[in-house]
Design goal:
Blueprint (H helix, E strand, L loop, with lengths): L9 E5 L9 H6 L6 E5 L13 E4 L13 H13 L3 E5 L1 H11 L4 E13 L1 E2 L14 E10 L6 E6 L7 E4 L4 E4 L7 H13 L5 H9 L8 H10 L6
Parallel strand pairs: 1-2, 1-3, 3-4, 4-10
Antiparallel strand pairs: 5-7, 6-8, 8-9, 9-10
Helix pairs in contact: 2-3, 4-5
Protein backbone atom coordinates (compact mmCIF):
# COMPACT_ATOMS: atom_id res chain seq x y z
CA UNK A 1 0.00 0.00 0.00
CA UNK A 2 1.10 3.56 -0.55
CA UNK A 3 -0.17 7.10 -0.25
CA UNK A 4 -1.35 7.12 -3.85
CA UNK A 5 -3.92 4.38 -3.31
CA UNK A 6 -4.85 5.56 0.20
CA UNK A 7 -4.41 2.09 1.67
CA UNK A 8 -7.30 0.64 -0.37
CA UNK A 9 -7.29 -3.13 -0.82
CA UNK A 10 -10.04 -4.25 -3.17
CA UNK A 11 -11.36 -7.79 -3.61
CA UNK A 12 -13.49 -8.65 -6.66
CA UNK A 13 -15.60 -11.78 -6.29
CA UNK A 14 -16.12 -13.19 -9.78
CA UNK A 15 -19.51 -14.91 -9.94
CA UNK A 16 -19.37 -15.80 -13.64
CA UNK A 17 -20.39 -19.35 -14.55
CA UNK A 18 -19.28 -19.31 -18.21
CA UNK A 19 -16.08 -17.22 -18.23
CA UNK A 20 -15.69 -17.60 -21.99
CA UNK A 21 -18.86 -15.49 -22.36
CA UNK A 22 -19.05 -13.28 -19.28
CA UNK A 23 -15.87 -11.60 -17.99
CA UNK A 24 -16.93 -9.37 -15.08
CA UNK A 25 -13.47 -8.89 -13.58
CA UNK A 26 -12.22 -7.59 -16.92
CA UNK A 27 -15.17 -5.21 -17.11
CA UNK A 28 -14.78 -3.82 -13.58
CA UNK A 29 -10.99 -3.62 -13.58
CA UNK A 30 -10.87 -1.28 -16.59
CA UNK A 31 -11.73 1.67 -14.38
CA UNK A 32 -9.57 0.78 -11.39
CA UNK A 33 -6.35 2.51 -10.37
CA UNK A 34 -5.97 0.82 -6.98
CA UNK A 35 -4.64 -2.62 -5.99
CA UNK A 36 -7.18 -5.38 -6.53
CA UNK A 37 -7.36 -9.16 -6.33
CA UNK A 38 -9.94 -11.43 -7.97
CA UNK A 39 -11.55 -14.51 -6.40
CA UNK A 40 -13.49 -17.05 -8.48
CA UNK A 41 -16.65 -18.11 -6.69
CA UNK A 42 -17.27 -21.24 -8.79
CA UNK A 43 -13.88 -22.50 -7.55
CA UNK A 44 -14.93 -21.78 -3.94
CA UNK A 45 -12.29 -19.08 -3.67
CA UNK A 46 -13.28 -16.13 -1.52
CA UNK A 47 -11.42 -13.26 0.13
CA UNK A 48 -10.62 -13.05 3.82
CA UNK A 49 -12.43 -9.83 4.80
CA UNK A 50 -9.67 -9.06 7.30
CA UNK A 51 -7.28 -8.46 4.40
CA UNK A 52 -9.40 -5.98 2.44
CA UNK A 53 -11.11 -2.61 2.70
CA UNK A 54 -13.50 -2.88 -0.28
CA UNK A 55 -15.34 -5.74 -2.01
CA UNK A 56 -17.13 -5.87 -5.38
CA UNK A 57 -19.64 -8.68 -5.97
CA UNK A 58 -20.10 -9.22 -9.70
CA UNK A 59 -23.08 -10.44 -11.65
CA UNK A 60 -23.61 -14.03 -12.70
CA UNK A 61 -25.38 -16.02 -15.42
CA UNK A 62 -26.82 -18.24 -12.69
CA UNK A 63 -30.02 -17.55 -10.76
CA UNK A 64 -29.92 -16.84 -7.05
CA UNK A 65 -33.29 -18.60 -6.88
CA UNK A 66 -31.55 -21.83 -7.90
CA UNK A 67 -28.37 -21.32 -5.88
CA UNK A 68 -25.11 -22.92 -6.94
CA UNK A 69 -23.12 -24.85 -4.36
CA UNK A 70 -20.92 -21.91 -3.49
CA UNK A 71 -23.64 -19.32 -2.78
CA UNK A 72 -24.06 -20.01 0.94
CA UNK A 73 -20.31 -19.71 1.42
CA UNK A 74 -20.23 -16.37 -0.40
CA UNK A 75 -23.18 -15.08 1.62
CA UNK A 76 -21.22 -15.79 4.81
CA UNK A 77 -18.20 -13.91 3.47
CA UNK A 78 -20.41 -10.95 2.54
CA UNK A 79 -22.06 -10.87 5.96
CA UNK A 80 -18.63 -10.96 7.64
CA UNK A 81 -17.34 -8.18 5.39
CA UNK A 82 -20.31 -6.00 6.38
CA UNK A 83 -19.85 -6.84 10.08
CA UNK A 84 -16.25 -5.67 9.78
CA UNK A 85 -17.39 -2.42 8.18
CA UNK A 86 -15.93 -3.00 4.70
CA UNK A 87 -17.27 -1.02 1.75
CA UNK A 88 -19.23 -3.46 -0.43
CA UNK A 89 -20.74 -3.00 -3.90
CA UNK A 90 -22.91 -5.66 -5.53
CA UNK A 91 -23.96 -5.58 -9.20
CA UNK A 92 -26.94 -7.54 -10.62
CA UNK A 93 -26.62 -11.04 -9.07
CA UNK A 94 -24.31 -9.49 -6.45
CA UNK A 95 -27.01 -6.92 -5.65
CA UNK A 96 -29.50 -9.75 -5.13
CA UNK A 97 -27.04 -11.64 -2.94
CA UNK A 98 -26.69 -8.59 -0.70
CA UNK A 99 -30.44 -8.53 -0.13
CA UNK A 100 -30.53 -12.26 0.67
CA UNK A 101 -27.40 -12.28 2.84
CA UNK A 102 -28.20 -9.17 4.87
CA UNK A 103 -32.01 -8.97 4.96
CA UNK A 104 -32.87 -12.67 4.90
CA UNK A 105 -34.49 -15.15 2.48
CA UNK A 106 -37.39 -14.38 0.20
CA UNK A 107 -36.07 -11.01 -0.96
CA UNK A 108 -35.54 -11.99 -4.61
CA UNK A 109 -38.04 -13.21 -7.21
CA UNK A 110 -38.44 -13.65 -10.97
CA UNK A 111 -38.92 -10.55 -13.08
CA UNK A 112 -42.38 -10.31 -14.65
CA UNK A 113 -40.43 -9.45 -17.79
CA UNK A 114 -36.63 -9.73 -18.23
CA UNK A 115 -34.93 -6.34 -18.35
CA UNK A 116 -32.32 -6.63 -21.07
CA UNK A 117 -30.45 -3.97 -23.00
CA UNK A 118 -29.93 -0.27 -22.38
CA UNK A 119 -32.35 1.20 -19.86
CA UNK A 120 -33.06 4.48 -18.07
CA UNK A 121 -32.82 4.62 -14.30
CA UNK A 122 -34.98 6.95 -12.23
CA UNK A 123 -32.97 8.18 -9.24
CA UNK A 124 -35.43 8.32 -6.35
CA UNK A 125 -32.88 9.52 -3.79
CA UNK A 126 -29.65 11.47 -4.09
CA UNK A 127 -26.44 9.49 -3.60
CA UNK A 128 -22.75 9.96 -4.16
CA UNK A 129 -22.68 6.80 -6.30
CA UNK A 130 -25.39 7.66 -8.81
CA UNK A 131 -26.25 11.36 -8.66
CA UNK A 132 -29.14 13.61 -7.70
CA UNK A 133 -32.74 12.51 -7.21
CA UNK A 134 -34.76 13.07 -10.36
CA UNK A 135 -31.92 12.34 -12.78
CA UNK A 136 -32.44 9.59 -15.37
CA UNK A 137 -29.09 8.16 -16.47
CA UNK A 138 -28.90 5.38 -19.04
CA UNK A 139 -27.01 2.14 -18.48
CA UNK A 140 -26.83 -1.55 -19.46
CA UNK A 141 -28.94 -4.31 -17.93
CA UNK A 142 -29.40 -8.09 -18.18
CA UNK A 143 -31.48 -9.74 -15.47
CA UNK A 144 -34.21 -12.34 -15.12
CA UNK A 145 -34.51 -12.06 -11.30
CA UNK A 146 -34.81 -8.95 -9.13
CA UNK A 147 -34.93 -7.75 -5.54
CA UNK A 148 -38.62 -7.61 -4.68
CA UNK A 149 -38.34 -6.29 -1.12
CA UNK A 150 -34.93 -5.32 0.30
CA UNK A 151 -36.42 -4.86 3.77
CA UNK A 152 -36.21 -1.87 6.10
CA UNK A 153 -32.44 -2.27 6.41
CA UNK A 154 -32.01 -0.80 2.93
CA UNK A 155 -32.86 2.55 1.33
CA UNK A 156 -33.95 2.31 -2.31
CA UNK A 157 -31.98 4.77 -4.48
CA UNK A 158 -33.27 4.09 -8.00
CA UNK A 159 -35.92 2.30 -10.01
CA UNK A 160 -36.71 1.72 -13.69
CA UNK A 161 -39.80 1.09 -15.77
CA UNK A 162 -39.62 -2.67 -15.11
CA UNK A 163 -37.75 -2.87 -11.80
CA UNK A 164 -38.66 -1.10 -8.56
CA UNK A 165 -35.31 -1.73 -6.84
CA UNK A 166 -32.58 -0.79 -9.30
CA UNK A 167 -30.23 0.50 -6.60
CA UNK A 168 -30.14 0.39 -2.82
CA UNK A 169 -27.92 1.20 0.12
CA UNK A 170 -27.67 -0.45 3.51
CA UNK A 171 -28.70 2.35 5.83
CA UNK A 172 -25.78 4.02 7.56
CA UNK A 173 -23.18 1.73 5.97
CA UNK A 174 -20.94 1.90 2.87
CA UNK A 175 -22.82 -0.99 1.24
CA UNK A 176 -24.60 -0.60 -2.11
CA UNK A 177 -26.45 -2.84 -4.56
CA UNK A 178 -27.02 -2.07 -8.26
CA UNK A 179 -29.32 -4.22 -10.38
CA UNK A 180 -27.84 -2.77 -13.58
CA UNK A 181 -24.41 -3.33 -15.15
CA UNK A 182 -22.82 0.15 -15.31
CA UNK A 183 -19.40 -1.47 -15.81
CA UNK A 184 -20.50 -2.79 -19.24
CA UNK A 185 -19.84 -0.21 -21.96
CA UNK A 186 -21.65 -0.23 -25.32
CA UNK A 187 -19.19 -2.38 -27.34
CA UNK A 188 -18.92 -4.87 -24.47
CA UNK A 189 -22.69 -4.95 -24.05
CA UNK A 190 -23.31 -5.67 -27.72
CA UNK A 191 -20.71 -8.46 -27.74
CA UNK A 192 -22.13 -9.93 -24.54
CA UNK A 193 -25.66 -10.01 -25.99
CA UNK A 194 -24.43 -11.62 -29.24
CA UNK A 195 -22.48 -14.24 -27.32
CA UNK A 196 -25.50 -15.07 -25.15
CA UNK A 197 -27.65 -15.52 -28.27
CA UNK A 198 -25.05 -17.73 -29.95
CA UNK A 199 -24.66 -19.85 -26.82
CA UNK A 200 -28.40 -20.59 -26.71
CA UNK A 201 -28.89 -18.73 -23.44
CA UNK A 202 -32.45 -18.25 -22.19
CA UNK A 203 -34.50 -15.24 -23.31
CA UNK A 204 -33.46 -15.32 -26.96
CA UNK A 205 -36.24 -12.98 -28.11
CA UNK A 206 -35.46 -10.39 -25.46
CA UNK A 207 -31.74 -10.62 -26.25
CA UNK A 208 -32.36 -10.07 -29.97
CA UNK A 209 -34.70 -7.17 -29.21
CA UNK A 210 -31.99 -5.55 -27.09
CA UNK A 211 -29.42 -6.02 -29.88
CA UNK A 212 -31.74 -4.26 -32.31
CA UNK A 213 -32.31 -1.32 -29.96
CA UNK A 214 -30.32 1.92 -29.81
CA UNK A 215 -27.59 1.65 -27.15
CA UNK A 216 -27.45 4.41 -24.52
CA UNK A 217 -24.82 4.84 -21.83
CA UNK A 218 -24.49 7.88 -19.56
CA UNK A 219 -21.12 6.71 -18.24
CA UNK A 220 -22.30 6.10 -14.68
CA UNK A 221 -19.30 3.88 -14.05
CA UNK A 222 -17.07 6.97 -14.05
CA UNK A 223 -19.02 8.27 -11.06
CA UNK A 224 -19.65 4.97 -9.30
CA UNK A 225 -16.08 3.66 -9.03
CA UNK A 226 -14.45 6.79 -7.52
CA UNK A 227 -17.36 7.29 -5.11
CA UNK A 228 -17.24 3.66 -3.99
CA UNK A 229 -13.47 3.68 -3.50
CA UNK A 230 -13.71 6.96 -1.57
CA UNK A 231 -16.05 5.32 0.97
CA UNK A 232 -14.14 4.73 4.17
CA UNK A 233 -14.64 1.29 5.72
CA UNK A 234 -16.70 1.44 8.87
CA UNK A 235 -18.25 4.78 7.99
CA UNK A 236 -21.44 5.77 6.17
Amino acid sequence: MNQRDGGIRLAIIDNAVFPEIYKPVEHWSRGLSVPWEAFVARDHRFPDPARFTHVILTGSESSILEPAGWVAEEAEVVAEAVRRGLAVLGSCWGHQLLAQALAGPGRVGRCPRPEIGWISLRLTASSELLGEAGEEPATFSVHFDEVKDPGPEFEVLASSGLCAVQAMRLKGRPVWGLQCHPEVDIPTGRKFLRDLVESGFKGREALLEALASRPRDSGLIRKIVPAFLAALPGRP
